Amino acid sequence: MATFVRLVKAALHSLAPGERISEHGICYERLPGNDGRYSIQLRIDGQKVHRVIGKESEGASRQNAEAVIERLKTEAREHRLQLPKARKSAISFKELSSQYLERLRQINGKNTKRKEEQLRLHLIPFLGTPPCDRISSFDIERYKAHRQRSGSALATINRELATLSHLYSCAKSWEWIKERPFQFKKFPEVVTRTTYLTPDQCRALLDEGIPNFTCLSASAWRLECEHPRFSPSASGILICQTGAFFFNRPRRGLEISRLA
Questions:
Q1: For residue 9, how many other CB atoms are within 10 A of its CB?
Q2: Number of CB atoms found within 10 A of residue 126's CB
Q3: Distance from C-alpha of 148 to C-alpha of 83, rounded to nearest angstrom
Q4: Which domain, by its residues, includes 162?
Q5: Chain centroid to CA 13: how far?
Q6: For 60-136, where are the alpha helices, taking DSSP H only?
Q7: pTM of the prediction?
Q8: Quick check: is 149 in a domain?
Q9: Structural contact between residues 32 and 19, judged by C-beta atoms closer than 8 angstroms
Q10: Residue 70's domain is classified under what CATH number?
């Protein structure tokens, strides 16, 4: 147990309302009406801890504050026993994200640039400082609600959640963490049905005389059938009054997808 020199009864009773004394992470503040309030404020495993223990009139004492500190330190020790080998404290989500991106660059991971933007612009600002293994399912639900309020599309949020899930899956496989501490469900998305057209069907589509359309070419594949209303291209966007279609050439014929 710590030895107290300042936080003793004689010193506490001499305080005027509004004055306080702190020692060994325990703070005592004198309140009006000859009352006092105990609180704790210290760092445990690199994390700030600030809690109000209670007032003297409610039975709170320095011993209560000491007991709370000891319990928190015990919980921290028990938590360290569950960490991967050679790690004494859990890293923050921000640090985990940085190491994840660096590892992806080393192994030429897919979509690294997009994942870096999702983490830097959205996930890290919201989840950044807590230990990576203390992020809960409730935190993820709060993130989903936050992104919805900002006007983000459900599909966009789902892509960000996919990056988050991939980050933790990789961290587990690389033995940076033992388990992913949360679960979540993605938002349902509308599945766009794709229709495959043969060159003859494509010709018939164009022969319908769709008014006021333009073709935005994306490459230089020439359609097998020449058509006066169709510029030669492998893929592009057909825009008309009845809607917009994206087309490209799969293994068979031409693939037409209506854009929402």
A1: 8
A2: 14
A3: 34
A4: 93-173
A5: 48
A6: 62-81, 93-106, 112-118, 124-127
A7: 0.50
A8: yes
A9: no
A10: 3.30.160
